[in-house]
Amino acid sequence: MTGVVYRAKAPLRISFCGGGTDVSPYPEERGGVVLSSTIDKYAYASIRPRTDSVLRLTSLDYGVTEEHPVGETLEPKGELALVLGVARSFQREEPFPSGCDVFLHSDAPPGSGLGSSSTMVTTLVGAFSEWLRRPLTPYEIAERTYQIERVDLAFAGGRQDQYAATFGGFNFIEFFADHTVVNPLRLRRATQNELEYALLLCFTGRTRASAHIVENQAKSYVEKKAPVVQALDEMKRIAIDMKGLLLRDRILDFGEALHEAWLHKKNLDAGITNPHIDELYAAARSEGAIGGKILGAGGGGYLLVLVPFERRRHVEEALSSLNGEIQSFAFEDRGLQTWTAHVDR
């Protein structure tokens, strides 16, 4: 027996600079900017219609399943809160035509610093849109994802991940009080190849819950604590400079800017780094890495470093000796993708 399955996938991202300036109320008051690129690690979602009125949600990564009657008022909570939040958002517009099975999984866990939670919400929005035939523009998808995660569910965080996952590729994203502008960067393929070869992605061995770091940063900004305001302003400036460096193929200078931005990022909150992260970064620098940063809000997840080609193996060995796990990756030009499959049940 063959059935229809509605699928979606969206890429995770590397944020080079500007993360934090996308967290309210900074973008509303001063305007935020983020320079990022998506990579070939993804969040996936599948929706398979049922013949009954059961909404069955399954995380393949965590082995968690929940069932809810279609039409029930959904209360997003627990490990599947994000899935319930997306389902509730669409259900409010129009009742589902039937029950369905929803499956999701990701190439990176929450707390990795690659934007996995927001990317999963983006993917789910894409899958539900595909199933319910509710076409949305990329900007509408990103805004809806932000609304579900940050407003409806009140999960602390910024705005960059939703746009990166939806649009894909290298982007310079500008955040204003009432709108967001995604500026795709037309980099030469040689520039992308050189940057990809120069970057090392290292898992620190620990994930972290980033909400408290983001909340502390936002609170410090609201209180106008000088070190935090200055750090955000400097990261915004550096993100603009880094965009120019990429467009001019200045990869090693880009690495120096990464290092400068990391020094400012550490001033946003004490939880952004820890002795293990500092040890990994110092070891990479001592073996020739030019610059780098912890990805995401900080506290764990992935460390990104830029290394001259002749020192790559030395840096890899130094990080591995400290239990860092080197992860291969490639840049991904495409953003959210949705499709319909016919599969044997």
Automatic annotation (TrEMBL):
<dbReference type="GO" id="GO:0005524">
    <property type="term" value="F:ATP binding"/>
</dbReference>
<dbReference type="InterPro" id="IPR052203">
    <property type="entry name" value="GHMP_Kinase-Related"/>
</dbReference>
<dbReference type="InterPro" id="IPR014606">
    <property type="entry name" value="Heptose_7-P_kinase"/>
</dbReference>
<dbReference type="InterPro" id="IPR020568">
    <property type="entry name" value="Ribosomal_Su5_D2-typ_SF"/>
</dbReference>
<dbReference type="GO" id="GO:0042352">
    <property type="term" value="P:GDP-L-fucose salvage"/>
</dbReference>
<dbReference type="GO" id="GO:0050201">
    <property type="term" value="F:fucokinase activity"/>
</dbReference>
<keyword id="KW-0808">Transferase</keyword>
<dbReference type="InterPro" id="IPR036554">
    <property type="entry name" value="GHMP_kinase_C_sf"/>
</dbReference>
<dbReference type="Pfam" id="PF00288">
    <property type="entry name" value="GHMP_kinases_N"/>
</dbReference>
<dbReference type="InterPro" id="IPR013750">
    <property type="entry name" value="GHMP_kinase_C_dom"/>
</dbReference>
<keyword id="KW-0067">ATP-binding</keyword>
<keyword id="KW-0418">Kinase</keyword>
<keyword id="KW-0547">Nucleotide-binding</keyword>
<feature type="domain" description="GHMP kinase N-terminal">
    <location>
        <begin position="82"/>
        <end position="169"/>
    </location>
</feature>
<protein>
    <submittedName>
        <fullName>GHMP kinase</fullName>
    </submittedName>
</protein>
<comment type="similarity">
    <text>Belongs to the GHMP kinase family.</text>
</comment>
<feature type="domain" description="GHMP kinase C-terminal">
    <location>
        <begin position="245"/>
        <end position="321"/>
    </location>
</feature>
<dbReference type="InterPro" id="IPR001174">
    <property type="entry name" value="HddA/FKP"/>
</dbReference>
<dbReference type="InterPro" id="IPR006204">
    <property type="entry name" value="GHMP_kinase_N_dom"/>
</dbReference>
<dbReference type="Pfam" id="PF08544">
    <property type="entry name" value="GHMP_kinases_C"/>
</dbReference>
